[in-house]
């Protein structure tokens, strides 16, 4: 439990407090300010994972979000567990519990490492070829096994205990990255008074300044300048600084997605507060100051634990006071690694040597290394490395050839130069331009209102980085840039892309390119031998760059390998597209608050509470909860519905119809508007009368229906189906605004203005009448399909005499806030008649007995008015209505065998057919059989003491009397075709 | 005429009846509401009938006494009134606009009100509403139809830190829960 690689001083960690954490069950110590990676390194732990395909032992490679190896699972229990976190980004807290992945039983002894022994049998694309035979083995054997092996980490099995927040925001300038360029940009923009959001993925702002012991800015050491810069933001209330916040996605019109970690670093977090917040920021301008990512060098066995990127090692030293090892070998093509060597040497780490690919490296850093007496091997390469769970040495060879020399080391620090982080810019569809001197793709012409500053734009020296940031910030906010005096920060130069020369048999070594997906230089070569020439094809064949790091480390090296083989310059090969997210974002951020009961609005009627108290069973109808039936005692649905049906047919029932859509159509042209929308004629409908309306789409098919009441000459009360309410209003508004703008008519949704109570049954009038004032509702004064405005229980009402049950009935519209009280008044008034509340299931049965259609059940978007027997409702004299021209098409007019609505009666009266079942003429017909139609509604009719069904049947009306068959799982049921009205066909009960 | 909200022996049961409110939000119950649609030509007359200037810009509120008109579109206003004033308003409009070229629909019970107050209110609203609440973009007196998560709402800024929200009754519990959910992230 000793932190033997921790220096006694230096870094930004808090040595006054010690934290205990566990990794794979073993306890270690660290300090506040550590990441999991820096704390493991402080304890000398490099081996942290096994690779994806070959299960090779892997160590911490980087110090940032590009980490491909150190992927860990973190969380105290399954409900707080997150897999695949980058240890380099996990902030240490006391009690942190973490585990490695892709190993069994342990990191040190992993069965999967057998793959590494047989690695020659698993080249790129091997599964495309290997598992093709025998064919059946794919689904039975290969695929399940591959699925078991594929993927990293384990998914938690319990629901996430965390809450997640979401937030919209707007700003003038969003600055991505709070390194020197981003800080300079944000300060310049803030000075103009602009609203600025500055975000950075790290726990503190500063970027490279957090590990900058040498440079001076405006006469202050970099760390001091950083303090003053951050203090300045306090003076600008319109600046928001968001740390632990990753700009993960660039969406159209400058919408940027930010993932802000809120409590992950706090340890035993309080689940009441959100774990993270997803920001959707609409920025007028974006300044991308995302920095640059160091490239690995591609040489044989470049993946052993202990091999790290040179700048990462310097960062661990400067920021966390941690040594990567005791004896470091440097392999580089960039001056930055010399700086690392010098810093490590100062800190007491032996330097085994600096192997430089370049023949004549020069400049201040190289000179300083020479002066410090470090052994430099120019124009040299590393041919191989050794060590199983930790590097123990490497063989250095001159590039020109000759004998190698083995140098022992416990860490190897490499640098292939830096790749500008153009991910966000690329996501914004900005064009990338290849810079041959830098061997890098740089941001070109932007497609959005954004600019790129600092090393993300290919600028390297600190002075220039800050100047480019200040300029970008000032330009974005319309201000002027101010300059910074930067001293003692010489530029580091150099770089290399591709596979380094190593003088070995290329077929017998593995030089890793994409660490996360285990792609080697050999795989790229194989892909090109197989004929892949496009970078997109090579990517898919080898899976290079397809891991969650999206090739942050590997893309440029892959291009560097392809370019000489194809004989094409890098820009001619192109680069792959970057997509969001920049680094993985937990799903919870996207779900946000939309979980459980807040996933969708759950709409309740004004009477819902009453039904709930009565023990109603509810069903979902669009977003509404509707009472389906009201069971009494131990009744099941069948018994409850039978009882409710009997009550309505013999006495009186009460039903909550509030969810029906309602639209108030008002204006001098209201009737004309309805004429144009519905198939029916409305002009002659008198105020106080109701009519059943059918609405078609332009293609002539039924889309909605409902009863429409004329309140006055210029005011209609339109009802729609429950699910169609919003759709119908939108459709009407669309026609009104685009097709009939000349009509003086206005539409208002009144669905929720009214609670609608249906009182249905022979006793309905006896229940309703005593509560009515201001109207005569006798059969003579208020016949079927008429309406009156009156008061019920003292509340204003639109009383409709209408029936969806076939019985005498009323639908009472009252202002919704009175709905519950009026319902209870009706219950009291109906008590002597044993008034029975009924639900949607009973409503469905009663209407089916009468052959009333339900749009969406008897219709499916391909049904015309004639198909359901409603052709007679069409206003023949009307010049036009929506769908009229479609109905007049030849195809409709000449089609003789359309499916038509019929009734079906089974031979066996107890048999209730399956809805959706097909109808055939001859069940013995060889397959494929001729389907004549299908069952749309099927119920047990308590009223008739037998089953009834509605169906759409080819040429159905002409088949009345025929006997057909419905094949069911239980056998073929013989049915007779009848008219689709089973009960009271004359309608005498309606007029009671 | 349609059935205007008026006092009866029965009391109204609001969508948020029984909700106590918290430090940010409070149900606003009662009152009458109309959706008023008036073409350009009748703006002056309708305004005179209401005692409100309807010729102001879209997305602004005008108030006089207990009458408020939120202009939600070129020809659309949401009238917020005292319950006892509803019949009077309907009568004055019908007397003044004799050509009938307007629409007045009673939506008193269609929606309910929520008062939001405090310095965190815009933060809370931005949890589910994508609008910019900077005073320059959404000044005091502005009112608009917008969304809060998956619910349509009308939002009226009465003061820098005070908003009035209108939401359809069946969406009110959903909006209310989310306001509380987001609100607990903010201290004041």
TrEMBL record, chain A:
Q: Name one GO molecular function term.
A: sarcosine oxidase activity
Q: Which family does it belong to?
A: Belongs to the GcvT family.
Q: Which GO terms describe its biological process?
A: tetrahydrofolate metabolic process
What's the protein called, per UniProt?
Answer: Sarcosine oxidase alpha subunit
Which UniProt key words apply to this protein? Oxidoreductase
Q: Per the database record, which ranges form the SoxA A3 domain?
A: 510-592
The UniProt record lists the Aminomethyltransferase C-terminal domain at 899-984
Cite the GCVT N-terminal domain residue spans from the record.
607-877
Which Pfam families does the protein's record reference?
A: FAD_oxidored (PF12831), Fer2_4 (PF13510), GCV_T (PF01571), GCV_T_C (PF08669), SO_alpha_A3 (PF17806)
Q: Which organism is it from?
A: Acidocella aminolytica 101 = DSM 11237
Q: Which InterPro entries match?
A: 2Fe-2S-bd_N (IPR042204), BFD-like_2Fe2S-bd_dom_sf (IPR041854), FAD/NAD-bd_sf (IPR036188), GcvT/YgfZ/DmdA (IPR028896), GcvT/YgfZ_C (IPR029043), GcvT_C (IPR013977), GCVT_N (IPR006222), Sarcosine_oxidase_asu (IPR006277)
Domain of life the protein comes from:
Bacteria
From TrEMBL, chain B:
> Matching InterPro entries, A to Z?
SoxG (IPR007375), TrmE/GcvT-like (IPR027266)
Kindly give the Pfam families that the UniProt entry links to this protein. Answer: SoxG
Domain of life assignment: Bacteria
Q: Which Gene3D superfamilies match?
A: Heterotetrameric sarcosine oxidase, Probable tRNA modification gtpase trme, domain 1
Q: What is this protein called?
A: Sarcosine oxidase gamma subunit
Q: Which organism is it from?
A: Acidocella aminolytica 101 = DSM 11237
């Amino acid at each position: 439990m000793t932190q033997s690689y921790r220096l006694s001083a230096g870094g930004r960690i808090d040595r006054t407090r010690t934290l205990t954490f566990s990794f794979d069950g073993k306890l270690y110590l660290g300090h506040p300010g550590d990441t999991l990676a820096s704390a493991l390194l402080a304890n000398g732990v490099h081996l942290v994972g096994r690779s994806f395909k070959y299960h090779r032992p892997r160590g911490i490679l980087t110090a940032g979000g590009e980490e491909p190896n150190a992927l860990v699972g973190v969380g105290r229990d399954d409900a707080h567990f997150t897999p695949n976190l980058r240890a380099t980004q996990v902030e240490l807290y006391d009690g942190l519990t973490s585990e490695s992945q892709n190993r069994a039983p342990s990191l040190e002894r992993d069965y999967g490492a057998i793959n590494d022994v047989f690695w020659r049998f698993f080249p790129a694309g091997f599964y495309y070829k290997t598992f093709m035979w025998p064919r059946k083995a794919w689904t039975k054997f290969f695929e399940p096994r591959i699925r078991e092996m594929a993927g990293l980490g384990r998914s938690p099995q319990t629901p996430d205990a965390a809450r997640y927040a979401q937030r919209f925001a707007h700003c003038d300038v969003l600055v991505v990255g709070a390194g020197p360029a981003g800080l300079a940009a944000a300060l310049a923009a803030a000075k103009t008074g602009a609203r600025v959001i500055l975000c950075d993925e790290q726990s503190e702002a500063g970027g490279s300044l957090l590990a900058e012991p040498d440079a001076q800015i405006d006469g202050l050491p970099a760390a001091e300048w950083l303090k003053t810069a951050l203090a300045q933001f306090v003076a600008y209330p319109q600046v928001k600084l968001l740390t632990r916040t990753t700009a993960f996605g660039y969406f159209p019109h400058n919408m940027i997605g930010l993932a802000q970690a809120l409590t992950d670093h706090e340890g035993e977090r309080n689940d009441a507060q959100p774990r993270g917040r997803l920001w959707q920021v609409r920025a007028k301008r974006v300044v991308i100051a995302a920095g640059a990512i160091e490239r690995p060098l591609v040489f044989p066995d470049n993946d052993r634990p202990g091999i790290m990127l040179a700048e990462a090692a310097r960062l661990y030293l400067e920021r966390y006071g941690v040594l990567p090892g005791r004896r470091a070998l440097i392999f580089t093509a960039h001056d930055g690694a010399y700086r690392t060597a010098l810093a490590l040497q100062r800190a007491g780490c032996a330097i085994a040597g600096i192997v430089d690919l370049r023949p004549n490296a020069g400049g201040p850093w190289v000179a300083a290394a020479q002066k410090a007496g470090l052994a430099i091997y120019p124009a040299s390469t590393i041919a191989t490395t050794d060590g199983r769970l930790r590097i123990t040495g490497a063989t250095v060879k001159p590039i020109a050839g000759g004998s190698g020399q083995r140098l022992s080391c416990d860490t190897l620090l490499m640098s292939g130069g830096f790749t500008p982080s153009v991910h966000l810019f690329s996501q914004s569809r900005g064009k990338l331009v290849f810079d041959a001197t830098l061997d890098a793709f740089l941001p070109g012409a932007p497609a959005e209102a954004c600019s790129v500053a600092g090393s993300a734009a290919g600028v390297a020296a600190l002075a220039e980085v800050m100047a480019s940031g200040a300029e970008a910030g000032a330009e974005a906010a319309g201000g002027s840039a101010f300059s910074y005096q930067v001293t003692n920060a010489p530029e580091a130069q150099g770089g290399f892309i591709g596979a380094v020369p190593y003088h070995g048999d290329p077929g017998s070594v593995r030089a890793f390119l994409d660490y996360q997906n285990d792609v080697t230089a050999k795989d790229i070569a194989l892909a090109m031998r197989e004929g892949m020439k496009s970078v997109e094809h090579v990517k898919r064949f080898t899976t290079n760059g397809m891991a969650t790091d999206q090739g942050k480390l590997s893309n440029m090296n892959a291009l560097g390998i392809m370019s000489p083989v194809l004989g094409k310059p890098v820009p001619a090969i192109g680069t792959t597209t970057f997509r969001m997210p920049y680094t993985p974002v937990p799903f919870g951020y996207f779900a946000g608050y939309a979980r459980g009961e807040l996933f969708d609005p759950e709409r309740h009627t004004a009477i819902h509470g009453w039904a709930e108290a009565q023990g109603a069973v509810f069903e979902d109808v669009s977003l509404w909860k509707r009472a389906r039936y009201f069971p009494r005692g131990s009744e099941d649905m069948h018994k409850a519905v039978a009882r409710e049906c009997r009550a309505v047919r013999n006495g009186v029932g009460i039903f909550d119809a509030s969810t029906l859509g309602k639209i108030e159509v008002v204006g001098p042209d209201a009737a004309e508007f309805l004429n144009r929308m519905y198939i029916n004629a409305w002009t002659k409908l008198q105020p106080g009368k109701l009519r059943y309306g059918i609405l078609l789409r332009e293609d002539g098919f039924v889309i909605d229906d409902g009863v429409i009441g004329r309140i006055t000459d210029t005011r209609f009360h339109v009802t729609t189906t429950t699910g169609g309410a919003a759709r119908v209003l939108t459709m009407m508004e669309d026609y009104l605004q685009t097709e009939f703008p000349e009509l003086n008519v206005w539409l208002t949704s009144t669905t929720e203005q009214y609670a609608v109570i249906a009182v249905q049954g022979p006793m309905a009038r006896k229940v309703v009448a005593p509560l009515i004032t201001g109207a005569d509702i006798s059969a003579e004064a208020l016949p079927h399909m008429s309406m009156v405005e009156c008061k019920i229980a003292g509340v204003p009402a639109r009383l409709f005499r209408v029936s969806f049950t076939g019985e005498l009935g009323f639908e009472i519209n009252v202002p919704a806030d009175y709905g519950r009280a009026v319902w209870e008044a009706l219950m009291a008034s109906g008590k002597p008649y044993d008034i029975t509340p009924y639900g949607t299931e009973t409503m469905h049965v009663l209407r089916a007995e009468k052959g009333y259609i339900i749009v969406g059940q008897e219709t499916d978007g391909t049904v015309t008015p004639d198909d359901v027997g409603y052709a007679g409702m069409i206003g023949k004299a009307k010049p036009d209505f929506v769908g009229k021209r479609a109905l007049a098409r030849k195809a409709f007019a000449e089609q003789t065998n359309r499916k038509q609505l019929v009734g079906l009666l089974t031979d066996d009266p107890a048999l209730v057919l399956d809805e959706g079942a097909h109808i055939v003429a001859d069940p013995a017909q060889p397959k494929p059989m001729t389907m004549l139609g299908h069952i749309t509604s099927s119920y047990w009719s308590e009223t008739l003491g037998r089953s009834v069904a509605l169906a759409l049947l080819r040429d159905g009306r002409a088949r009345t009397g025929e006997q057909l068959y419905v094949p069911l799982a239980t056998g073929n049921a013989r049915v007779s075709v009848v008219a689709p009205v089973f009960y009271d066909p004359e309608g005498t009960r309606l007029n009671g | 005429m349609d059935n205007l909200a008026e006092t009866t022996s029965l009391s109204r049961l609001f969508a948020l009846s029984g909700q106590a409110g918290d430090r940010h939000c409070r149900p606003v119950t009662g009152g009458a509401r109309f959706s008023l649609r008036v073409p350009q030509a009748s703006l002056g007359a309708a305004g005179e009938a209401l005692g409100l200037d309807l010729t102001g810009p879209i997305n602004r509120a005008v108030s006089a006494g207990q009458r408020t008109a939120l202009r939600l579109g070129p020809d659309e206003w949401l009238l917020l009134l005292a319950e006892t004033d509803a019949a009077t308003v309907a009568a004055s409009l019908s007397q003044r606009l004799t050509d009938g070229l307007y629409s007045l629909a009673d939506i008193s019970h269609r929606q309910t009100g929520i008062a939001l107050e405090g310095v965190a209110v815009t933060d809370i609203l931005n949890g589910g509403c994508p609008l910019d609440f900077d005073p320059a973009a959404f000044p005091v007196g502005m009112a608009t139809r917008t969304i809060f998560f998956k619910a349509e709402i009308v939002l009226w800024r009465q003061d820098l830190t005070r908003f009035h929200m209108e939401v359809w009754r069946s969406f009110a519990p959903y909006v209310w829960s989310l306001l509380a959910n987001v609100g607990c992230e903010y201290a004041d």
